[in-house]
Each structure stands twice: as structure tokens, then as C-alpha cells.
Amino acid sequence: MRLPIGLRIGSSAFLAAWCFIAAFPIFWIAVMSFKEPVDSFASNPLHVVFGPSTLESGKGLSILDIVVGIAALYAIFKFSTSRLPALVDRYSPFGLRVAGWAVAAAAVGLISVVALFGVLPPVLSAVEGVLGPLGRPVIGLTAEHYEAVWVKHEFYRNFLNSIYVTSGVVVVSLTVGTLAGYGLARSGSNLAFWILVVALVFRALPHSVLVAGYLPFFIGSAEILEPLLGESAPTLYGQPLAVIAVLVSINQPFTIWMLRSFFQNIPAELDEAARVDGCTHFQAFRWVIMPVMWPGVITTGLFSFLLAYNDFLVTSLLLDASNQTMVPAIAGFFNRETTTTDQVEAVAAAVSITAPLFLLVMVFQRQIVSGLTAGAVKG
Amino acid sequence: MKFRTFAAFVGPSVALMILFIAMPLASVFVQSFQVTRVIYEEIEVESCTPGFVAQTCVTETRLQPVVDDQGDMVVETEFVGFGSYINVLEPDRLAEALGEASWSRLMGIDFWKALRFTLTFTLVTLPLVLGTGLAIALAVNSVARSIRGQVIFVSLLPFIITPVIGALSIRWLFIGDGILTALLEWALDRDIAMFAQAWTIELMMLIYRVWHVAPFAFVVFYAGLQTVNSDTLESAVVDGASRFERLRYVIVPHLMPLIVFVALIHLMDAYRVFEEIVGFSSQAHVISLQWLTYDLLTPDQSGSRSISRASASAMLTMVGIVILLVPLLRKTWRDHRLGRI
Questions:
Q1: Contact A176/B at CB under 8 A
Q2: Considering only CB atoms, which chain A residues are within 8 Å of B328?
Q3: For residue range A33-65, what is the model confidence (pLDDT) as tens digits?
Q4: How many C-beta atoms surround the C-beta of residue B69 within 10 A?
Q5: Which of A27, A32, A250, B138 is least crowded, fewest Cβ atoms below 10 Å from its Cβ?
């Protein structure tokens, strides 16, 4: 049905405004993180974008830098969308394509960082001296805050902790969750219903309520568990493994509801046929149902990833400073705020945390949308 | 499916939920009636400083923790009934404030202050999120198919971003003389400090939350719009329904189950508001119920955590959740009895 012209213009304008509002804060902190403090907190937006005082202090990009930089980014993008998938397919061992992709992504990321920040700057500055006007900086831009965050403040430790906790949560919660989701989807019993209802109640619990229950036990666990485990009883407080277990459990209600709704979309005739052919329930699940379940598993995995990666409350209360993940660690950055440099470093850390999420939406947009609607449409 | 097979499939998940959700819940319930504290004893210490003729000696009594044979501090756990709840709710001050009918006195008590904000926040963001989500979904539905993918991509960004960072990114736009504060000052021609009083901070939090959750509502509603029956729409056109009437009497009733779904999820999540307080560092002006528990759990200067008060405040937070959940549970139960689930 065609809209009248006035309404069409109105709705397009509204949509354009929404897109601008949706992307602007994220785009803006990315710009801020590359400037000297005077520029990034300037009240004139043009100063933030072009960074005059950053430029004055001799840190800037010339036209040559910009052109070469964009070309390099484009080359990386082109390579990872066209050549990389074939390479991964060829070299990853059978059944381990996920691992192959993880290795490929890490390699591309590492090479890009080395090329953009290690190799290009010295080469370009040598060339710029010869070029004259083309080689003169025009936009103020500096990566020094990223360097300070990642190298001086050792943010890479928090990054590794985040990877450890997040991947642990995703793997365990999918393993446990698919089993339960399948069982719940295929059993029409009252018990299954009550498990789902209780899970729904658990889904609504504020996380601080649960943490209030963990803390005394986790801090004193060495003494409490001693009669059971003897001398080797661990103190659970500050243990990433304990946090993984906690986050998996907190996430279980959501995971089993979502996976159950995906399993229900797979016709039960499929596993009945397998059972007739002599499979046990578990064999039918493993060899017949799982191969067609991958879209659901990937979608649910994405949401587990987001929960673990974005968590602030649980990780900040249950981990100590030595194995803090990225999100609670950033609280240290913005609470310090003694100088404006600290603030820009906090911005740089925030952008570093957001970048992987941005890539995630780019790659998995379709799965995220299907996950958001999966729970709703079934209702 | 036989019970044993079912138990084998569901077992690990249920075990995790019992161990890490049900048991902590039970222990929080018990803790909220107990107080665990270090036992102190009074000792007399005589400290002498050398003086000219005689030493100057001062005897003072000092409190010090009792230490057992291993050198650990002795703690005792005591049943206090509703003591911790009274500590959190502060009924004396509440009665005083109510007696004087003084709103500001009432807002001086942490729990009631947190409750006031949490409820306002939940109820104000709800219609805004639903409205914005529906408006975006309708607008996307009427735009050319070729750019829908990009619009959805951009819309997902606020939803996917880490909540603390999302709140921070809004805060950095306003902090000091940030560009948006500068813009407001220019538009209103007056000096503005966004972080100096409670209501501006609350306003920013509301805006942040709508920005963060509207994409979720949008995606769900957009999926629902794809299944609107076009025959019904066409017959509505034939019957002479205007555009607004079609929206009001065909599209919205079709989306109603989804609207209820989004509303319930949003109520649960908004009631747990917490990250905004951290991101905007607003604890001096605005706090929420979940932040209150978090704050009690964080070690204070002497390194001790008020576990029992935190448990009491956690249990009180739960009461609200239960009230919110009753309609949802009733609906699920009806569906189950009708065999729809």
C-alpha cells in the first residue's frame, strides 16, 4: 500500500533521526578517544572532530595517511570477506570450523594491529618528509590513549580474563542448555512445565539478590568445604571458574527457554524416525537433531556471550583486582578521573570494549534478530 | 519420553539452577534474619611516655577483636528476627517523615529513596519504550526493502552495547561542557550543570534506557508486522477505515500479545535498574533498589560487608519482582491448561 507523500517524508525523517540517535553516542566516543583531552571534551563539536590542539602538539594525520589508512582498512575488509572463508574451509580440520574461524579472526586482528600501528607509521612519516603539502597533518588524531590503556595500564590482562570467562560461560551454558532444552521440548509432562515456570521466576531475579547469597559462602569456602575436600579446599572468591559457574547458572533459565522454543520448531517425527531405526534418545539427539539445530545454538550462544561479556555486577563483586574482567575494570578508569587524560583513557577503554560487540553485530545480525523474536512469537 | 531419560537430559541444568540460584536464595532468606559480627572485648591499656620526674602514664580502655588459638577473629552469628529489615526500612524515620508530611525527609531514607526512583523509572520508561519501538517498526516497514538491513544494523547497536558503557557514552556527551550541554546552553541561553541535581540525572537515565531498549521492542514488533493479515487490512480499506483506524483496530490488536511480552520483559529488566547508577556515578543523588544491595555488599572502609542488611534489602527487592510476575505466571498457567505450551 502506498503512503501519501507527507506521511512518507515524515516517517523517513523519523527513521533518519532514529538512526542518527542510535549510532551517534557510539560514534562520538570513538572520535573522542583519538584526541587530546582539550579537544575531546571541547564544547565545540568541530573541535572534537578536527582536533586543533591535538594537531598543534604535532599529532595528526596528513592526507597521505588518511588515504593509505582507508586503503589498508578496505584491503583488510575485502580480504576477510572474500578470501578468508575459503582459506578457513581449506585448512581447518574436519568438524572444527569454529576453531578455525577463531584462529583466523585472531590472526587477522593481530596482523591488522601490527600493520596499522607498527609498520605503517614509520614508513609513512619517512615518505611525508619528501612530499611537502600532501604530507602535512590536517586532522588531529592520536592513538596514545589506546597505547596507555593497553600497554601502561595492562588492559590486555583484563581482556584475557574477559575472553576466559566469556568463552567458558558460552561453552558450558550451551552444553548444559541444549540437553535440557531438548528434554523439555520433547516431554509434555507436568514436571517439565513446572521446571519452566520456576525458571521464568529465576529469570526475573535481580542478580544482586543472588550475589548476596554467594558472597559469605565464597569468601569462607575454604573453611566450609574443608571437611569434604580436605586441605585442598579452594577459596571460591576471586576464582574465574567460580564466576563462570555463577554466570552459567544465572543464564540457564533464559537459555533453556530459548533453546526449547528452537527445539520445538524441529518436527518430533525426526527423532521418532531415528528411534525406529534403533537409536537411543541420546543418539537421536546427538546425530539427528543437533545437526539441524546449529542456527538455534549459535543464536543462544550469542546471547550467552552478551550476558557474560557485558556483566558488571557479578564480576565486580566476585572477582578481585588481579583477575578482573574488562567491564568492571573500566570502573577503575572513570572513578580515578584525577586528570582529563585519565578521562580520555577511560573513553579509549570503553571503545576497546565496544569494538568486538560492533564486529559481532556485523557478522551475526541475522541470528541476533531471530533470537530476539524467537521467544516472542511463540509467546 | 521416560522419566529417567528426561532426568538425564534435564539433570545438569536443574542441578546448576538449584545449586546457584535456589540455594543462594534460601541462604539469603536465612541471612536476612541473622547478624554475623566479630566479637570485641574491652581491654585496659596503660601507655606510658617518659617524663621529667616521673613517667606520664595514661590508662585507656580500647576495643579489640577477640582472637582464637589460630589467630583468627572469633565471630558469632545471632538471630535478630526482623532487626535487619528494620535497619533497612527505618520505620521510625518513616513515621516521623509521614507525620510531618515531609517529602524531603522521606527521601532522606535510602530505601524509600531507592524505591521511589526504581518505580518511577520502571513506569515512565515502559510507555516510552513501547511507543518508540512501535514507531520505528512502522517506519521501517514503510521504507524501501533495500535499506532495511542497514537500518536494523544501526538500530541493534544501542541494544548490544555493554550497559555500563552505554550509560557512560551518554554521560560523556554531557559532562562538563560537553557538546550536548553546550548545545542546550546555547538553545536555552542559560548556564546548565547536568550533574548537579537529581532530576537532570534522572532524565538522562530515562533517555539512556529508552535508547537502549527501544531496539528490542522494534525488532519484536517488526517481526510481528510481517505476519499482519493483508486480507483484513484490505477489507478495512474497503470499509473506509482511515490509516489511523487501521492502525488502531487491525494492527495493534494483532500485535497485542507481542506488546504484552515486551512490556513484561521490560518491567522485569527496568525494575533491576543498576548499571545506570554506576555509569552516571549518580549515587549521591539517585539510587535504585538493586544498587542499594550492591552498595551494602561492597566492602566499606574497614573492609567489612553488611551481609545481613544486604540480604534484607535483597528480600525486599524480591517482593516487588513477585508482584510484577503474578500476571505473567497466571497467563502461563492458563496457556498450559489449554495445552498451548
A1: yes
A2: 200
A3: 887 777 777 777 777 777 777 666 666 677 777
A4: 5
A5: A27
List all residues of chain A from 50 to 79 with a beta carbon under 8 Å from chain B: none
Three-class SS of residue B207?
A: helix
Cα distances (Å, whole numbers) of residue B2 to A187, A265, A288, B176: 9, 21, 19, 65
Closest residue by Cα to residue B306 from B26, B38, B65: B38
pLDDT tens digits for A214-245?
877 777 766 776 667 666 667 777 778 888 88
Domains of chain B: 103-337 (1.10.3720.10)
Q: How far is CA B197 from CA A337, B194, B331, in A?
A: 20, 7, 42
**Which one, of A124, A111, A128, A23, lies nearest residue A69 by Cα?**
A124
Phi-psi region of A58 (alpha: psi -120 to 50; beta: other; left: phi over 0): left
Q: How many CB atoms lie within 10 A of CB B297?
A: 23
A377 close contact with B: CB closer than 8 A: yes
The CATH architecture to which A153-336 belongs is Orthogonal Bundle (1.10)
Q: Of the candidates B268, B270, B279, B261, which has an alpha carbon nearest to the alpha carbon of residue B217?
A: B261
Q: How far apart are CA B341 and CA B337, in angstroms?
A: 8
Cα distance between residue B150 and residue B156, in whole Å: 10
Interchain contact B301–A (C-beta under 8 A):
no
How far is CA A98 from its chain centroid? 16
- Measured between CA atoms, how close is A131 to chain B, in angstroms? 36
Model ipTM?
A: 0.81
All three cell numbers of A359, joined, read 564486529
Alpha-carbon span A32 to A347, nearest angstrom: 7
Query: Helix crossing, A340-378 with B148-160: angle to 10°?
Result: 120
pLDDT bracket for residue A139 (50, 70, 90): confident
C-alpha B4/C-alpha B16 separation (Å) is 18
Distance of CA B95 to the CA centre of its chain: 27
C-alpha distances out from residue A70 to A63, A65, A116, Å: 11, 8, 10
Coil, strand or helix at A177? helix
